[in-house]
Design brief:
The structure is a single chain. The strands form 2 sheets. Strands 1, 2, 6, 7, 8, 9, 15 and 16 form an 8-stranded mixed sheet that branches. The protein has an 8-stranded mixed sheet with strand order 3-5-4-11-12-13-10-14. The protein has 3 domains: 191 residues, 3-Layer(bba) Sandwich (FAD/NAD(P)-binding domain); 113 residues, D-Amino Acid Oxidase, Chain A, domain 2; 74 residues, no CATH class. The protein contains 13 helices and 16 strands. The protein is globular, with a radius of gyration of 21 Å. Helix 1 packs parallel to helix 3 and helix 1 packs parallel to helix 6. It is an alpha/beta fold and 399 residues long. The protein binds flavin-adenine dinucleotide. The site of flavin-adenine dinucleotide (FAD) has 38 residues, from helix 1, strand 2, strand 10, strand 14 and helix 6. The site of flavin-adenine dinucleotide has 38 residues, from helix 1, strand 2, strand 10, strand 14 and helix 6.
């Protein structure tokens, strides 16, 4: 067997989380291998609404801003309820709609330019934690000081560590299609979110330069036929379901990992379950957690104690985890059947709900403030009584 190649840090997965981890570790002077099974540019199912918080994270970690031709800016937003437009709002800032083929390639190139080595088109066949090594499918071995798993919602590394990548009762599933409705040149092409097309989830119709990205997602264990709902939703949005290719993917639905990793192995982004279960936003959290893991690796290796990486990282991601707890509690109210009428009414009339939505997307307002406001208003009792997971799942557990 050929000699093993050794890196300070190996990052598995070159999506937004992996590229951020690799960039940060390389910037801190570490040798880094950035592995992905795909060859870039590669597709990734995603609405690719790059929120202001995500744009800010890109700037902080990579020091770059999306070039104009990589996104479509727009401020027009519609809140919908089973196809009915409840409200038209103008966002207080540009929302930017990109595509993951270009966006991820661009971020990965930034990590490579910082010195991370490119191991694309590479599969890992075995994790050899006891000797801090990976075996690749061609038999080669790579050794690491710290291993960072940025390998997505179905993370093979999380599965290796914990026996499963996610809890099937708590994971969300989404369908998406690209409709042939180019929005380039359309003045302020509107996005819409349909809050009632599915239970414990929502639908989205995002304008893109060359298409419209239409999708819906919800907690998988809720008793509903997401695929059939997707066909209905496409029709409501004026698209013949037979004219598009519908694809599906898992995405974390609020069940993040309390301890995302073990010793010198860290999980970031979707692999750690870091997705906002109300807005569906995962890109900002992927970049933020990736950079935190890069920093944690650098601290632990500088102290010559790689196993301390988890201590640094678990501490750093606590604010993300606390926010995701709040998101889950608030979601329990927003999606509770008992509050359906009230929620619809708020979407239609409440200026505060409209403003909070954009403030959260921009990172200007935290869910702590949102929760405080909910608690202050009519929901004090509800906050105590409503669980953060759907009722069917709760019944199953109790029974
Ligand atoms: C339908 C849908 C719509 C979404 N819309 C939005 C949105 O509009 N805005 C938003 O902010 N978020 C959205 N999200 C969430 C967002 O896509 C994720 O949170 C984000 O991609 C997480 O980034 P990541 O780097 O952790 O993982 P990923 O982007 O999934 O990257 C993981 C990488 O790991 C690689 N990989 C996987 N397994 C292996 C392996 N065994 N070996 C090597 N490499 C491997 C993959 O090839 C991939 O490149 C959406 C998700 C879905 C499913």
């Amino acid at each position: 067997m050929a000699d093993a190649v050794r890196y300070d840090v190996i990052v598995l997965g070159a999506g937004p989380a992996g590229s951020a981890a690799a960039k940060r570790a390389a910037d801190r002077g570490l040798s880094v291998a950035l592995i992905d099974r795909a060859v870039f540019p590669r597709h990734k199912l995603c609405g690719a609404l790059i929120s202001p918080r995500a744009n800010k994270a890109v700037k902080e970690v990579h020091g770059i801003e999306m070039p104009d031709d990589m996104y479509l800016p727009s401020r027009a937003v519609e809140f919908k309820w089973n196809g009915e437009v409840l409200r038209d709002i103008t966002a207080p800032y540009d929302l930017t709609y990109s595509n993951r083929l270009d966006f991820d390639h661009w971020l990965r190139n930034s990590a490579l330019a910082a010195g991370a080595e490119n191991w694309e088109g590479t599969r890992v066949s075995r994790f050899l934690d006891t000797v801090n090594a990976l075996e690749l499918s061609d038999g080669r071995r790579l050794e690491y000081g710290v291993l960072i798993g940025a390998d997505g919602a179905a993370s093979p590394l999380a599965k290796h560590l914990f026996g499963q990548a996610f809890d099937n009762d708590k994971i969300a599933f989404a369908f998406e299609a690209e409709a042939d409705q180019p929005c380039d040149g359309v003045s302020d092409a509107s996005m819409s979110i349909d809050f009632r097309i599915v239970r414990w989830g929502y639908g989205w119709n995002f304008p893109k330069r060359k298409t419209r990205t239409i999708g819906l997602g919800g907690i998988k264990s809720v008793d509903q036929d997401l695929k059939a709902l997707m066909a209905q939703y496409l029709e409501l949005e004026g698209v013949d379901p037979g004219s598009v290719t519908v694809k599906g993917a898992h995405l974390p639905g609020g069940d993040y990992k309390k301890k995302p990793g073990r010793g010198n192995i860290l999980l970031v982004g979707d692999a750690a379950g870091f997705v906002d279960a109300i807005t569906g936003e995962g890109i900002a959290l992927a970049i933020e957690s990736g950079a935190m893991a890069g920093d944690a690796a650098a601290e632990a290796l500088a102290a010559d104690r790689p196993a301390l990486a988890e201590t640094h990282y678990f501490g750093a991601v606590k604010p993300i985890q606390a926010e995701l707890d709040r998101v889950r509690r608030i979601r329990g109210i927003v999606y509770a059947e008992a509050f359906e009428k009230h929620f619809k009414d708020r979407l239609r009339h409440s200026d505060w709900v409209g403003t909070a939505f954009f403030d959260v997307l921009s990172g200007e307002r935290t869910y702590a403030e949102v929760e405080k406001r909910f608690a202050k208003k009519a929901f004090t009792k509800a906050l105590q009584g409503v669980a953060s997971w759907p009722s069917k799942m709760r019944r199953k557990r109790a029974g």
